[in-house]
């Protein structure tokens, strides 16, 4: 008991210490290099961030970027799950889709961004890129999930003549949900990175990536760092919200006492 | 409804599990498939219920029938409660209100009403087995196929359930076939006992018990005679 309380008290302290250690390393780098344009000091980045917080354009950029990531992710989940289920049930479809997924996975993101710039309006490019990058992850995991469905449960459903839709809802979906949630968390982190990258190149009016681009044009390193910090924080925030959401959905209600 | 098995063959790789089996099982009797473990009994049951396809041969009399299969393992949905597990198989066959009524009735039969909201992992092995028995009876198929249904149950409950099966059978006369390697279970429940050896599965002998179930306990001598027959190699 005592042991665990000490551990619990130590944990946030530990985290704080680790955080301070890396900020100190950053500060040290700044002292060694001594030029703001290469490495801005943590303090100046913090000040820039503080200034940004009071600009309406900052909040607009953030909300549009969030919208793009979520839209891309949503599309990839919907299509990834449905096509994943279809292709794991039908081997021909799987053989057909698999090379496409392998191709998407090994194509550089920039090739896609450049072609998407030609296809779509600037605001939609990041959505498409986010979708395209997350889709293979979701698809692969759904296929793996369906392949791991317990055959014996399916036999049971077959013997008792259970409807296909009920089998899908009560056997397939619960079996793939751990695979799917892992895929979603991975996709969320990736989605942020690629859609910001797409925004840098397509620069829509309101976007984090557009601000990163202008920071680069004006050689404003502390603003570049400040926006980057924003992306990191948002990505972490979404990941933790999402993980919590999944835990809530998959957690069971407390059940009756077992006393035989 | 008579079940005819004609020239049945089944191989797993190079292992011959069933090689040319012929039997006729008449309706209106409780059939017991008796034999040592690993002799191919479960494979036979899976072929009869249509879960696996034979390599060769024919099954007549089981088409378009509904099955209540008690598997050797529990095969319960781990993410559903006991109640939801039963409703899972009942939803397509019965109206909602009838399904709920059946859940109540059969959970109380196996003495598990208190655990209707529990998940399978919270139950002991014997309790899970009872849930699968409740599932099979609540479903009420034309054919009851049971693969060692009383495994892991204590004597008292086993007897209650066997009495219930006999009662149910007299009432509804479904086609009943069960697998066991327990001599007492076979003698208590079966009308026809098919003794198998294997693999490959082959019928060694068939014993017919011509005493009605209710009289079996008082006719000890005759039952002992059957017991001796079953035990004799």
How does the SSE layout of this entry go?
The complex is a heterodimer of chains A (260) and B (233).
Chain A: H1 2-33, H2 42-53, H3 56-89, H4 91-106, H5 109-119, H6 125-147, H7 151-159, H8 164-202, H9 208-217, H10 221-250
Helix pairs in contact in A: 2-10, 3-4, 3-6, 3-8, 4-6, 5-6, 5-8, 6-8, 8-9, 8-10, 9-10
Chain B: E1 3-12, E2 15-25, E3 30-34, H1 41-48, E4 56-60, E5 67-70, H2 82-90, H3 96-109, H4 125-139, E6 143-147, H5 155-172, E7 175-180, H6 183-189, E8 192-197, E9 202-208, H7 220-231
Parallel strand pairs in B: 3-7, 3-8, 5-6, 6-7
Antiparallel strand pairs in B: 1-2, 1-4, 8-9
Classified in CATH, the superfamily of the largest domain in chain B is P-loop containing nucleotide triphosphate hydrolases
Beta-strand content bin of chain A: under 5%
Can you tell me the CATH superfamily of the largest domain in chain A?
Answer: MetI-like
User: Please, how many domains of chain B?
Assistant: 2
CATH topology (fold) name of the largest domain in chain B: Rossmann fold
- Strand order in space, largest sheet of chain B: 5-6-7-3-8-9
The ordered string of helix (H) and strand (E) elements of chain B is EEEHEEHHHEHEHEEH
What is the CATH third-level topology name of the largest domain in chain A?
Answer: MetI-like fold
Portion of residues within helices of chain B: 25-40%
Q: Which structural class matches the secondary elements of chain B? A: alpha/beta
Radius of gyration of chain A: 23 Å
- Based on the structure, what is the oligomeric state of the protein chains? heterodimer
Question: What would the principal axes of the Cα set say about the shape of chain B?
Answer: globular
Family (chain A): Belongs to the binding-protein-dependent transport system permease family.
InterPro entries (chain A): MetI-like, MetI-like_sf
Membrane topology (chain A): Multi-pass membrane protein
Keywords (chain A): Cell membrane, Membrane, Transmembrane, Transmembrane helix, Transport
